[in-house]
Amino acid sequence: MSLPRIPPLLLTGAAAVAQGVCARRSAPTPLSLTGAAALAAGSVWMLGGSAARFRREGTTVNPVEVDRVTALVETGPYRRSRNPMYVGMAGLLLAHAVGRRSWTAGVPLALYIAVVDRCQIPVEEKALRAAFGTDYDHYARRVPRWLDRRSVRGQGR
Protein backbone atom coordinates (compact mmCIF):
# COMPACT_ATOMS: atom_id res chain seq x y z
CA MET A 1 0.00 0.00 0.00
CA SER A 2 1.45 3.34 -0.99
CA LEU A 3 0.69 6.49 0.92
CA PRO A 4 -0.79 9.44 -0.95
CA ARG A 5 1.79 12.03 -1.94
CA ILE A 6 1.23 15.59 -0.79
CA PRO A 7 3.03 18.30 -2.78
CA PRO A 8 6.13 19.14 -0.71
CA LEU A 9 5.48 22.89 -0.74
CA LEU A 10 2.01 22.29 0.72
CA LEU A 11 3.51 19.89 3.25
CA THR A 12 6.09 22.53 4.22
CA GLY A 13 3.34 25.11 4.72
CA ALA A 14 1.32 22.70 6.86
CA ALA A 15 4.41 21.94 8.96
CA ALA A 16 5.04 25.68 9.43
CA VAL A 17 1.46 26.20 10.61
CA ALA A 18 1.81 23.24 13.00
CA GLN A 19 5.06 24.75 14.28
CA GLY A 20 3.23 27.99 15.01
CA VAL A 21 0.71 26.08 17.07
CA CYS A 22 3.42 24.12 18.88
CA ALA A 23 5.43 27.26 19.64
CA ARG A 24 2.59 29.64 20.48
CA ARG A 25 3.92 30.15 24.02
CA SER A 26 7.53 30.63 22.98
CA ALA A 27 8.90 34.11 22.46
CA PRO A 28 11.86 34.86 20.20
CA THR A 29 14.93 36.64 21.47
CA PRO A 30 17.46 38.68 19.49
CA LEU A 31 19.89 35.75 19.69
CA SER A 32 17.33 33.18 18.53
CA LEU A 33 16.30 35.45 15.66
CA THR A 34 19.94 35.90 14.64
CA GLY A 35 20.46 32.13 14.58
CA ALA A 36 17.21 31.65 12.69
CA ALA A 37 18.23 34.27 10.13
CA ALA A 38 21.54 32.50 9.50
CA LEU A 39 19.78 29.15 9.06
CA ALA A 40 17.15 30.71 6.82
CA ALA A 41 19.79 32.37 4.62
CA GLY A 42 21.57 29.06 4.02
CA SER A 43 18.25 27.34 3.42
CA VAL A 44 17.11 29.93 0.90
CA TRP A 45 20.45 29.54 -0.89
CA MET A 46 19.94 25.75 -1.10
CA LEU A 47 16.34 26.07 -2.21
CA GLY A 48 16.81 28.92 -4.67
CA GLY A 49 20.09 27.67 -6.06
CA SER A 50 18.73 24.22 -6.71
CA ALA A 51 15.56 25.51 -8.39
CA ALA A 52 17.68 27.80 -10.55
CA ARG A 53 19.84 24.83 -11.62
CA PHE A 54 16.73 22.91 -12.67
CA ARG A 55 15.47 25.85 -14.69
CA ARG A 56 18.89 26.35 -16.29
CA GLU A 57 18.92 22.69 -17.35
CA GLY A 58 15.33 22.96 -18.65
CA THR A 59 13.93 20.25 -16.41
CA THR A 60 10.82 20.32 -14.26
CA VAL A 61 10.91 21.81 -10.78
CA ASN A 62 7.46 20.40 -10.02
CA PRO A 63 7.81 17.40 -7.67
CA VAL A 64 4.40 16.11 -8.75
CA GLU A 65 5.62 15.77 -12.37
CA VAL A 66 8.47 13.37 -11.64
CA ASP A 67 8.04 11.58 -14.97
CA ARG A 68 8.72 14.81 -16.89
CA VAL A 69 12.36 15.02 -15.79
CA THR A 70 14.69 15.75 -18.71
CA ALA A 71 18.08 16.27 -17.06
CA LEU A 72 20.11 14.77 -14.25
CA VAL A 73 21.40 17.84 -12.42
CA GLU A 74 24.66 17.22 -10.53
CA THR A 75 26.07 20.74 -10.16
CA GLY A 76 25.62 23.56 -7.66
CA PRO A 77 23.81 22.41 -4.50
CA TYR A 78 23.32 19.00 -6.14
CA ARG A 79 27.00 18.26 -5.49
CA ARG A 80 26.22 18.17 -1.74
CA SER A 81 22.71 16.71 -1.67
CA ARG A 82 20.48 14.83 -4.09
CA ASN A 83 17.56 16.80 -2.63
CA PRO A 84 18.71 20.33 -1.85
CA MET A 85 15.20 21.73 -2.34
CA TYR A 86 13.94 19.53 0.48
CA VAL A 87 17.03 20.35 2.54
CA GLY A 88 16.21 24.03 2.01
CA MET A 89 12.58 23.57 3.03
CA ALA A 90 13.58 21.57 6.10
CA GLY A 91 16.15 24.25 6.94
CA LEU A 92 13.47 26.93 6.82
CA LEU A 93 11.36 24.88 9.21
CA LEU A 94 14.39 24.46 11.48
CA ALA A 95 15.00 28.21 11.32
CA HIS A 96 11.40 28.79 12.37
CA ALA A 97 11.79 26.46 15.37
CA VAL A 98 15.08 28.09 16.37
CA GLY A 99 13.66 31.58 15.98
CA ARG A 100 10.70 30.68 18.17
CA ARG A 101 12.98 28.91 20.69
CA SER A 102 10.73 25.88 20.70
CA TRP A 103 11.85 22.29 20.78
CA THR A 104 8.21 21.23 20.27
CA ALA A 105 8.28 23.07 16.93
CA GLY A 106 10.83 20.44 15.94
CA VAL A 107 8.13 17.76 15.92
CA PRO A 108 6.49 19.02 12.69
CA LEU A 109 9.97 19.33 11.20
CA ALA A 110 10.73 15.69 12.03
CA LEU A 111 7.39 14.61 10.57
CA TYR A 112 8.05 16.67 7.44
CA ILE A 113 11.43 15.00 6.93
CA ALA A 114 9.98 11.53 7.53
CA VAL A 115 7.10 12.00 5.09
CA VAL A 116 9.30 13.50 2.35
CA ASP A 117 11.96 10.83 2.91
CA ARG A 118 9.53 7.91 2.82
CA CYS A 119 6.79 9.07 0.44
CA GLN A 120 8.16 11.66 -2.00
CA ILE A 121 11.85 10.98 -2.52
CA PRO A 122 11.49 7.25 -3.36
CA VAL A 123 9.05 8.12 -6.17
CA GLU A 124 11.50 10.68 -7.53
CA GLU A 125 14.41 8.25 -7.26
CA LYS A 126 12.46 5.61 -9.16
CA ALA A 127 11.70 8.10 -11.96
CA LEU A 128 15.33 9.25 -12.10
CA ARG A 129 16.57 5.68 -12.19
CA ALA A 130 14.14 4.88 -15.01
CA ALA A 131 15.20 7.99 -16.97
CA PHE A 132 18.97 7.93 -16.39
CA GLY A 133 19.84 4.35 -15.36
CA THR A 134 23.43 3.83 -14.28
CA ASP A 135 24.21 7.55 -14.48
CA TYR A 136 21.72 8.10 -11.67
CA ASP A 137 23.06 5.08 -9.74
CA HIS A 138 26.61 6.49 -9.88
CA TYR A 139 25.37 9.91 -8.76
CA ALA A 140 23.38 8.34 -5.90
CA ARG A 141 26.48 6.49 -4.69
CA ARG A 142 28.51 9.73 -4.62
CA VAL A 143 25.99 12.19 -3.18
CA PRO A 144 23.85 11.73 -0.07
CA ARG A 145 20.06 11.85 -0.17
CA TRP A 146 20.02 14.70 2.38
CA LEU A 147 23.38 16.05 3.59
CA ASP A 148 24.79 13.23 5.66
CA ARG A 149 26.69 10.32 4.09
CA ARG A 150 24.51 7.98 6.16
CA SER A 151 21.59 9.05 3.97
CA VAL A 152 23.15 7.52 0.86
CA ARG A 153 20.80 4.66 0.16
CA GLY A 154 18.53 3.25 -2.45
CA GLN A 155 21.27 2.14 -4.85
CA GLY A 156 20.76 -0.89 -6.99
CA ARG A 157 16.97 -0.90 -6.84
Briefly, what is this?
InterPro entries: Phopholipid_MeTrfase. The chain contains five helices and no strands.
Q: Spell the H/E element sequence.
A: HHHHH
Q: Bin the helical content.
A: 55-70%
Helical run tally: 5
Query: How many domains comprise the coordinates?
Result: 1
Shape: elongated
The whole-number mean of residue pLDDT values reads: 91
Alpha-beta classification = mainly alpha
Measured between the Cα atoms of the first and last residue, the distance is: 18 Å
Supply Rg.
Answer: 16 Å
Number of DSSP-assigned strands: 0
Q: Give the percentage of residues in beta strands.
A: under 5%
Largest sheet: none
Low-confidence stretches: none
Protein name: Isoprenylcysteine carboxylmethyltransferase family protein
Organism: Aeromicrobium piscarium
Main location: membrane
GO molecular function, one term: methyltransferase activity
Give structural notes.
Its main location: membrane. The chain is mostly helical. 61% of the residues lie in helices and 0% in strands. The chain has five helices and no strands. Helix 1 (8-22) packs antiparallel against helix 4. The longest helix has 28 residues, at 30-57. It starts with 7 loop residues before the first helix and ends in a 15-residue tail after the last helix.
